Amino acid sequence: MKMKVLAVISLFSCITHVYAEDHIPSVEIPKDLGGPRFLAWNNDYSYLSKSENRQGTWNEHLNYIPLGNDAENYITVGGEARWMYEYLNHATANLTPQDRNESVAQRLRLFGDLHLQQNFRMFLELGDNWAFDAEVPTPANYDAFDIQQFFVDYRLPITENLQLTLRPGRFVMPLGSKILVSTRDGSNVQYNYDGLATWFNYRDQIKIDVFDVKPVKFQRGSFDDKTDQSRELKGIYFNGKILEQPANQAKLDLYYFDMHHDQRIFTDGADVQNRKSIGARVFGQKENIDYDFEYIRQFGDYGDKNIRAYATFSQVGYHFEQKLNPHLSLQSMLFSGDNDLQDQRLKTFESPFPRTALFSGAAEFGLMNAIFIKPTFALDLMPNMNLKTSYGVLKKHKNNDAIYHAPSGIAWNEHDQTKSKDIAGITEVELDYQYNRNLNFNLLFSNVDAAQALKETGGKTNNYLSVTTQFKF
Predict the structure, then answer these.
(1) What are the residues whose beta carbons fall under 8 Å from the beta carbon of 74, sequence distance 6 or more?
(2) What is the number of alpha carbons within 13 Å of residue 295 lying toward its C-beta?
(3) Separation between Cα atoms, residue 178 and residue 365, nearest integer Å
(4) CA angle 358, 360, 362 (to 5 degrees)
């Protein structure tokens, strides 16, 4: 297995070294343009219509393919190849027998992005996802050749400064801090949705998203993914700039989500759930200080129970103007639990499509009935190489509630009550190297040291290691 991993990484490194750019382009790319970006549909290569902006690299002829003489009519072709080696000595913290897991996850993507003038766009992304030699298969790593995203954008200018964009189809839709609606990028298959998203944009100062979507239910075969008719997410998301100065920037997010689930399983059974979330987030930067504060309140119903849950999130960081650009930050968060599972109120917080790796890279614990505090120290070892180290303390919010698994949100086992609230101490070291704008390497080690509450449920300490090579164009 180790030889396979080394062979794959070595071969891919050689290939990408030949075809990737050796240096970041010297041409100054206009603000908010260029790529590759985290989300492929955020790439904007329209600046390549001007010959003086070209560097003559191999990918420019794919990133901008003109259609006729009008520079606004063009096609972008791009893609991604990612290999992730993962090792866990206890993939389920020993809650299932023989849970050692070692595998290589492979993600392949190819997309085409058609632009006609400024008001019409069609995006198609195909993908193949698989994991090799996994002893404990992760379902989200398996989806053979299929449509990952397929949508059209139609922009309607309302006034000179206000535009409305309609997006029907299948797409990825991360929102805000991604606590409630994330991407699940650590797995091969991201959270994809079928439905309609619309947004208003006022001078890039205010953006309002309105959406009605259902998650994609992916299958292992080819072209067999379907819409999950049992779940539906509706909502509205507001983002506005409060301050915009060189050394003082602040933004405000306000949102409302309505999540319906035909059969949500909790510790006391399964029933219909309608969970609504209302939240506010303030984040930004003031000189050397960066900050992010968020509060979420949840209400609704689960069967004949009333939902009354909440969550808080905060992150404050400081950038030292010293060699290696040291950065120190502190995260603290709380996701409410329920101390009385037999009454008529459900107080356990739940994210519809959670940011699964928020506590650890191993993504073991759900954002439910949890308190987490984590300081992080980061250094730039090289201009494109970053080292992060952190130690987090994870506790239960309520003793009588369960420890929940990510991302399913299912209790780890039937033993909900624990005498202790201490779940684990989590140590992580991450090294990230952006070789150039196409090629990235990442190394992550995580030690989840089981504390008393986890041990009471039968859990054990878990070590997690991932080595990732990712190439985008």
Answers:
(1) 45, 46, 49, 64, 65, 66, 67, 115
(2) 1
(3) 16
(4) 120
* Per-residue DSSP letter, 190: -
Burial of 180 (0-12, 13-18, 19+ CB in 10 A): buried
Task: Please report, to the nearest 10 degrees, the dihedral formed by the alpha carbons of residues 456, 459, 464, 470 taken in order.
Answer: -110
The closest of 351, 376, 378, 469 to 426, measured between CA atoms, is: 376
Yes or no: say if 279 and 292 are a contact pair by the CB < 8 Å rule: no
Domains of the chain (ranges, CATH numbers): 82-472 (2.40.160.100)
Average pLDDT over residues 65-76: 95
Q: Quick one: which H or E segment has residue 9?
A: helix 2-19
Phi and psi at residue 42, to the nearest 5°: -90, -5
Dump the DSSP string for 217-244.
Answer: E--SSSS--EE-TTEEEEEEEEEEEEEE
The encoded tokens of residue 333 equal 């968060």
Token pair 């849950």 in the structure block, residue: 309
Are 362 and 464 in contact, with CB atoms under 8 Å apart? yes
Mean pLDDT, residues 263-289: 92
Structure tokens at 185: 């990028």
Name which of 283, 300, 277, 292 is nearest 351 in CA terms: 277
pLDDT digits (tens, 9 = 90+) for 38-53: 999 999 999 999 988 8
Asked if pLDDT for residue 7 goes beyond 50, the answer is: no
Least confident of 115-124, 263-272, 439-448: 263-272
DSSP 186: T
Q: What is the pLDDT of residues 111-132, one digit of tens each?
A: 999 999 999 999 999 999 999 9
Give 76-143 as a 3 state SS string. EEEEEEEEEEEEECCCCCCCCCCCCEEEEEEEEEEEEEEEECCCEEEEEEEEEEEEECCCCCCHHHCE
Query: Tokens 């509205």 — which residue?
Result: 236
- Taking only the tens place, the pLDDT of each residue in 378-404 is 999 999 999 999 999 999 999 999 999
Question: pLDDT higher for 373 or 17?
Answer: 373
3-state secondary structure 26-73: CCCCCCCCECCCCCHHHCECHHHHCHHHCCCCCCHHHHCEECCCCCCC
Quick one: DSSP state of residue 161? S
Q: Is 26 left (phi over 0), alpha (psi -120 to 50) or beta?
A: alpha
Q: Which of 40-49, 259-268, 406-415, 460-469 has the lowest mean pLDDT?
A: 406-415
pLDDT at 177 over 60: yes
**What pLDDT shows up at residue 95?**
66
Q: Mean pLDDT, the chain, as a whole number?
A: 91
